[in-house]
Amino acid sequence: KSTTFSVTIKTGDKKNAGTDANVFITLFGTQDDTGMTLLKSSKTNSDKFERDSIEIFTVETLDLGDLWKVRIGHDNTGKAPGWFVDWVEVDAPSLGKCMTFPCGRWLAKNEDDGTIVRDLFHAELQTRRYTPFVPYEITLYTSDVFAAGTDANIFIVIYGCDAVCTQQKYLCTNKREQKLFFERKSASRFIMELEDVGEIIEKIRIGHDNTGMNPGWHCSHVDIRRLLPDKDGTETLTFPCDRWLATSEDDKKTIRELVPYDIFTEKYMRDGSLRQVYKEVEEPLDIVLYSVQIFTGNVPGAGTDAKVYITIYGDLGDTGERYLGKSENRTNKFERGTMDGVGAGGGGEGPPPQFTNLDSQADTFIIEAADLGVIYKIKLRHDNTKWCADWYVEKVEIWNDTNEDEFLFLCGRWLSLKKEDGRLERLFYEKVRERQEYTGDRSSNCSSPADFWEITLSSKMADIDIATVTGPMADYVQEGP
């Protein structure tokens, strides 16, 4: 069994603390050790081990058992080989531990005790524990079409049931790997230690950062192989794609959500034989097109030129953060609302007639994702770039083009460093209409004045006939379940 460690080293903030020597490390576990490992490529700095710097390295090895010691040293070469080390931190995802090994001493011939190699032992009180990660073998197949390969940095997120998922993980650790992998008609294989999402993988999300000379990528399919729960075999899930992730091809999107089509299981039996089983996935999630309408308010300075991002959350998962780049119905998006009255959508049947508004104009965006189930929350943010970055959002309406479910989010807030509480990112919760299948609380935590009155009145007017309520409060009273 192979495993990966993330090694972080802090050079002290002292005169001449940095080193030009070649640095090595050895990790010692209860079962084995790594042997002397030269630390070549830092993830943080090209000029390594300078004064008051932090370097991060990846060390791949076989299973060592529980870590108990590290040995850090150098070969005393270069113009200034002397080195002052503050501490070493080793993150072991397979163990669910991040351990600190204090040092605070010189590794130098002319300082301290003159030694250039030290054994360090971890400080138990500084150990951070978390749920252990599990290994996934991820193979991405680049298609055999013209310009299918990419120089961009590819990432992946894996989802289990009930919206349990891994963190977004970039597959390549440096530019050299980006150029080496994802060539036309190739298979790029990675072994990653990520969060355990449970026995069933519902979907994955793949995408890239759109960097490099040729960022566009045509993905054929993705295989994910992992150990069975009893660890006496493996299962491999295949996720078909056969689409572009490119701003110049297909629908111009660089993110795709994929659902598994088949599962190939290999399991060792008690008699030592290998049993191989192939089956199709039963009832995979549907891939759904969501129409997202965003209404910018009709107040002075409401429009924004900044880059806007949205994340949609449902009881089956989330979309991940999506950049709202191209409006389906307007060339100049997120402008201040008008009194013109705009129909709902940019083509197709679009949302129902009640999804209209006489106080704002709506920008419509199409987001493709695996079925999210009942949508209950969204996150909006912008990057505060351009001259007019401040943004006042009135409301957001989301329409499921497959089953015609509709979801309303009352906002009524600024996303601005200069207004209200100075926040550029906000969460909004769904305002329940007539759907009663969800019995939990869908109220926004006072994300707008309307929400405040709605929450307050609902508890104080339980015995009042809402048909008799008039005046300004009538808009904030709704019939409960």
Please tell me about this protein's structure:
About 5% of the residues lie in helices and about 40% in strands. It is mainly β and about 475 residues long. The strands form 6 sheets. Strands 13-10-15-16-18-19 form a 6-stranded antiparallel β-sheet, with no helix packed on it. It comes from Cervus elaphus hippelaphus.
The number of helical segments is 2
Report the top-level CATH class of the largest domain: Mainly Beta
Under CATH, the topology of the largest domain can be stated as Lipoxygenase-1
DSSP, total strands: 28
Instruction: Please indicate the count of domains.
Output: 4
- Main beta sheet strand tally, sense and closure: 6 strands, antiparallel
Helix/strand order: EEEEEEEEEEEEHEEEEEEEEEEEEEEEEH
Q: Kindly name the structural category.
A: mainly beta
| Shape-level CATH architecture of the largest domain | Sandwich
What percent of residues are in strands? 35-45%
Overall radius of gyration: 27 Å
Helix content: under 10%
What do we call the CATH homologous superfamily of the largest domain? Answer: PLAT/LH2 domain
Kindly report the average pLDDT value: 85
The N- and C-terminal alpha carbons lie at a distance of 54 Å
Residue windows where pLDDT falls under 50 for at least 5 positions: 339-360, 433-466, 468-481
Q: Strand arrangement, largest sheet?
A: 13-10-15-16-18-19
